[in-house]
Prior knowledge:
The structure is a homodimer. Chain A is an alpha/beta fold and about 260 residues long. Chain A folds into two domains: about 15-95, Winged helix-like DNA-binding domain superfamily/Winged helix DNA-binding domain (Arc Repressor Mutant, subunit A); about 105-215, NAD(P)-binding Rossmann-like Domain (Rossmann fold, 3-Layer(aba) Sandwich), CATH 3.40.50. Helix content of chain A is about 45%, strand content about 15%. The first copy, chain A, has ten helices and ten strands. Chain A has helices at about 15-25, 30-45, 55-60, 65-75, 85-95, 115-120, 125, 155-165, 175-185, 215-235, and strands at about 50, 80, 85, 105-110, 130-135, 145, 150-155, 165-170, 190-195, 210. In chain A, α2 (about 30-45) crosses α3, α2 packs antiparallel against α5 and α3 packs across α4 (about 65-75). The longest helix of chain A is centred in the C-terminal third of the chain and has 22 residues, at about 215-235. Chain A is globular, with a radius of gyration of 22 Å. Chains A and B meet through α1, α2, α6, α9 and α10 of A and α1, α2, α6, α8 and α9 of B. Chain A binds a DNA duplex (30 and 30 nucleotides) through α4 and β2.
Amino acid sequence: MASQRGEGETTTTPLEPADRERARAIPEAAVARLAVYLRVLSGMADQGVTAVSSEELSQAAGVNAAKLRKDLSYIGSYGTRGVGYDVEVLVSHIERILGLTRNHSVAVVGIGNLGHALANYGGFPGRGFPVTALFDVDPDLIGVPVGGIPVSHIDDITAVCLEREVSIGVIATPPPAAQSVCDRLVSAGVQCILNFAPVVLQVPDNVEVRKVDLAVEMQILSFHVARRADEAVHNSGGGVSVGNNGLGVDGMVIRP
Amino acid sequence: MASQRGEGETTTTPLEPADRERARAIPEAAVARLAVYLRVLSGMADQGVTAVSSEELSQAAGVNAAKLRKDLSYIGSYGTRGVGYDVEVLVSHIERILGLTRNHSVAVVGIGNLGHALANYGGFPGRGFPVTALFDVDPDLIGVPVGGIPVSHIDDITAVCLEREVSIGVIATPPPAAQSVCDRLVSAGVQCILNFAPVVLQVPDNVEVRKVDLAVEMQILSFHVARRADEAVHNSGGGVSVGNNGLGVDGMVIRP
DNA sequence: CCGACTTTGTGCATGCGTTCACAAGCGGTA
DNA sequence: TACCGCTTGTGAACGCATGCACAAAGTCGG
């Protein structure tokens, strides 16, 4: 499939055979955590930390130390027993496994409030996810630059996506438009979709979809509120202490 | 703990003892899916559908029919064998289990691009999650109404949250401010936090945190791109067909 | 009233992910 | 070189979630 898009492999570092078998076997849940480890490690590297133990890293990432070691073992044995891990080495190996050695061009569809936020979000370009295309149907928006990129009309999606080698499509449209947009992205050869619309997308097997559903997140929180309130009422009716955990309350807040 | 906040239970429907034991036993994964079922069912109800079978509902929700029935069985037996489920009945029971019979007041901290998007997002108020407070540090923003609500200063967070009975705090600040904001929310008695900042928050045990991490989502997609590209290269180098799944490509796109 | 058909609810087996516990391996030290 | 302490890497046990397959329970037609 990559071969369809001209010189797709220019910047890709091919995986070694041993890595390929490993990559196939990495549990989905572990992949998500590896991304978290990567961020923590990058932060450490920026602060000049060169070595780290599984215990330290696991605490910073908010997970069990044993789980962290198992997760890292999925990508190989790059630690030194009795010492720990070299931060730089770990960073580069996780980046390689996650496919971050290649840039992944991102297209955002639906330039409303959320689309604006995504287009302006600084976190993507710096980490290998440059936003290269924006789409909408509103005539007033077409051609207007948002975050430095002019908005294209949704009807040009196939041509633009192919031209700019878009590999990830982000759907930030209202729910009724989501499936249609999804179909167009798939037609344009996009195989990875991040969906913010509260809709269950139907896609072919060869397309990977990830969903971010704010309402669902809220409702899960709501469930826990209800469960706790109920437990509290039935257990003793007493007031549960609410105080903080001793962490300092000092910081400033800066607008994104 | 609810008893601490005056007349907290005014609109709450207390759970029956049988439901309480059930609620305790519902797997986390099932809770997330129940929220999805609820949305699908609500959409059906709006279109006048009154009854639905597990097969239909599961397809619309994108899950296995058996799994759907098991999920529903966690909240009770409200179907009719040989017929299916009554949409209204199912909606009301899921809402009750998820704690949606009570309104959950939401506070958004960090009124940048994302904060604006959240404050204006129409999906919350309609479904029992009214945004009642906004916070930032930027003097130019304080007092300015966003989505109909004036922005308060972060220093007033405790008073405002208590006054408006905020039960869910949303963190949409830059990473460096997230932990500090989190601590303040916790001090203000907020026990549920939805975190958009790419930071691992440290909280006491009695606080529930859910994380939405765009960079992590992107990197998971990147992993799958890399894995597939690699498989394709090593399997045969051939081009995988990309065509759509026969779904119509007809819709319009409207800006949120 | 009865029998055939449909669909739910669930016991059970399977597979995946997490956790434990410990052997293997490395650096430091005498 | 031989020993000691520390940390990694992983085999194995455990627990949770998923999917299957079927009994239970209801409707509908005659």
